[in-house]
Design a protein that fits this description.
By secondary structure, the protein is an alpha+beta fold. The protein has a single domain (2-133), classed as 2,3-Dihydroxybiphenyl 1,2-Dioxygenase, domain 1 (Roll). The chain contains three helices and eight strands. It has an eight-stranded mixed beta sheet. The two termini are 16 Å apart. The chain binds zinc ion (ZN). The site of zinc ion has 6 residues, from β1 and β5.
Amino acid sequence: MLKEIDHLGIAISNLDEGVRLYKDLLGFDLEGYEEVEDQMVKVAMLNAHGKTPNIELLEPTSSDSPIYKFIEKKGEGIHHIALGVENIEEVLERLKKEGVRVIDEVPRMGAGGKKIAFLHPKSTKGVLIELCEKQSE
Ligand code: ZN
């Protein structure tokens, strides 16, 4: 079940410059930094005074990172929209049954200890959509 837009993922080549823009210049609060090793990214999570959607800045740590490839191809910018859901397994199964192509057949661990799964942009009108579910709330 859909709850909210949890965050916007933004691909960026230098995390410090991104934090300077969103925090120092635009006034977002910095929630923290994290490294997600299987995606080969460093993440900074920010938000406007605790409210969703968050801004997730993603800097690649390797040229094998999907974020590195995205920046090579399209430049920096909005990479994905993340929808916060309840029962991510159920949502994913229902979408698959309806013929939606998925990148992750089953949810995996993302930033912030959330369960995440990406849908294929070929099935979602060109927008990379991430489903995510907070583990404890
Ligand atoms: Zn994300």
